[in-house]
Amino acid sequence: MPAKKLASLFASTVAKTSNSFQNASPRHDISIAKRSLNPVHVADSPTPPAGTPSKTSPGVSLQVLALLKKSSSTNTKEAVAPDKESAIEVASAISSILCGDHDKAMTAPHSSRDSTSGMPFKNILDFPWFSNGSQTCTTQLKKTLSRERKQKYIFKNVESRRFLELMKKCADKLGTESTLEFFEKLGRETGVKEYNSLIKICIDKAGCCSKEEDSLVYINKVHGLFLSMIEKGMPIEEESYGPLLNYMIDKKLMQGFQMFIELFKNEIPDCPRIGYYEMFFWIRVGDEKKIKELLDLVKVGNFEDKYPFIENYLLAFCRSGSDRKKDLLQFLEIIDMGKISSPKCIVSVFRSLGTLQLEDLAEKYFFELDTPGLWKEDISSFICEYVTSLPYLVVEDVISKFINTHQKLGIVASIASYEKLISFCCSSNKVCSALDIVDQMYKSGLCVPIEVLSPILHSCEHGGQLEMVHPIYLVMRQHNLKPTEDTLKRIICLYLKMKDFEGAYNVITDVQEMNEMPTTAMYNAIMAGYFREKNNHRALMVLKQMEHANLKPDSETYSYLIANCECEEDIVKYCEQMHHSEVEFTKYIYMALVNAYAKFGNFEMAKQIILNKEVPVNYLNEIKGVLMSALASNGQIHDALGIYAEIKRSGANIEPKAAICLIEHLQTDGELDRLLQLLEELKDSNSWFDGCSRVLLYCIQYNLTSTALELLKKLKEKDVSSANLIIPPMFNQIFKTPTNLKSGFELLQAVKELGLHPSRTCLDFLLSACVKAENSQMAWLVWSEYEIAGLAYNALTFIRMYQALLASKEFAAAKELVKRIPREDRHVQYLIDACETTYCNGS
After folding, report:
1. Quick one: which of 27, 239, 269 has its CA closest to 145?
2. Average pLDDT of the chain?
3. d(CA 87, CA 89)
4. What is the rounded CA–CA span in Å between residue 353 and residue 337?
5. Which of 557-561, 701-705, 744-748, 836-840 has the weakest average pLDDT?
6. Continuous H helices in 428-514
């Protein structure tokens, strides 16, 4: 539908509905708002006039959308979140989120004047939220209660992402005090979880402040929140005070820490857990007097009653590491390990003993605890914690130490401790050692669970040791481990990543021999493998094999089929099959539909998929991200940015893959601010490194050296190896854009000042750029950098410098330099001759 017609229809619908609010009963006003403010369904849109150009026939588009409507499992509503520019708009956002049917949010208009009773949102805190109508009979009472239930705002899960976002929006724009007032208007008491959310928000904001006086503003708000909790009689637990005290310990804020400690001690006297934070703070700041005072307190009176405090003080010393080794040893002398009630405390002790390499003391405690009624069942786990904490030991030595210690004590290692040891091996990328442990478990007579293979398979997949799938599968078969569906699918996927389709099919054959039934998920993995290899014929053969095995395709099957369709008619065919088979339309199906239509250039239909109101709202932003990537990849940057703005207006974050795709294709001059904004969207380290590298190259391309250096500095702070990896591509970009040669040399000096070390490749790119720019003066500067970096001149370096001199018409200097070039290799002589032919003809 043309944009103007759609806008007109939407405007008329809203106009009609606004009048309905005046006359509608309170019982129905919210449902009217939901129907009227939803995006216009495609089925309700006028049919385009004949002759309108289209990538596909109207029948195809409408047919698919009709199938989507029929097959949708739930009726969900798309939420359009507000702009973040004012408290009025925040109120609008809150209303749009909370007015939904439980977890479903209705679409809210952007106007700040809209409200359910004609009241402006700026007065939302003064709005009479619940009616006090009188009831004259049972029927009227039921109607009134039903109406009030619809008006009430209900939080089903206060720990959900939506609730946290809501709390953050309120705290950002209204402040903590107004936020509390607002939630008190919601018809339920503000509880501990709400306070904890606000406390965490304030602490996060304090942590982002560069100046201490700015952070104290937020700490003062936290103090007010705790006072409010105390006034209301709420319990102050570690979930509330722990994040605050950890923040103050990290920042070493002595006055603030003492103030809060006194507050918590008054409200929760004799709380041993407070003692942990107090002791650790004084250890952190090195106040020996305070440390001695706390230790003296536990020595006074009945020593037995002080063990809860002793455990927490002991935890603080263990966390302090080797710096407090002497204090830890003295503390261990006065306590009885058998009287410690916390397994967490004992684990910390043995980790510290391992880190400090106190073997004799560790063995002493192992024997003490190896007593019935104490920690006998957990000794094996404690041994594992100890041996894996020993420094300077290779994995094989750790395993040997684990086995020998068990033999010395005469105890059998537990399955739990073996699993910890396997995870330790996998974290060190030692898959062979992990498999040896599985063999050891089997020889010990233990009933080995199939779950022990999960970290091993994960390590193979992420560590690139794909070939290890053969011994893993062999161990599983030899020890008759009963596999789960997930284990078998992961094994099949590893075979497929090696392009060993025969091995993958052998797994399915073995499953049948074990009197187990292959699953659709196993065949789906093989189908996906064939599609990755662009072998569509074999992929479709897998579908036939599933039919012979009496297995029905599921949503995952159809998502692969739709994403790899060879024509639009196939899309309709698969949608019809899904509808007849009553297969659920998952988010992966919607993503596949968007990608499939985008592949055929039918972006109008791809957009209609998103506009369809049957798409569940919780899928919407991910599917929009797929459309945004497709638009950007096909040069439709303007439309992609429109989708991006729409996602941001909804208050959501875009998917990392979509953000990187947009960064990759947003490479025109003047887009730096937008690229930096997209970079902020990337939260996990891997995607941020990828996005940062792309923005860095953009800065080099457009001679934005200062910004490039700022990004490189941030990259170095996060990961030095990643910073070193991006430096050669940066100088390659200088070579591609030789007009930036001067900036390139300045960049070289700045990179060195950052403590990074440009490689020979970087200097080679810079010297080659001098050749393209015919700049011998800069070439001599680069030439000297080889010597400064301690890099010997090789034949290729000489030839590049020779080219630079010839290109700059410095024939005398070139003649002297060519004498120094080693000519043992005939290819070198060929390159010299080629340079002379290129630059000396006509001289």
Report:
1. 27
2. 78
3. 5
4. 13
5. 836-840
6. 431-443, 453-463, 469-478, 485-497, 501-513
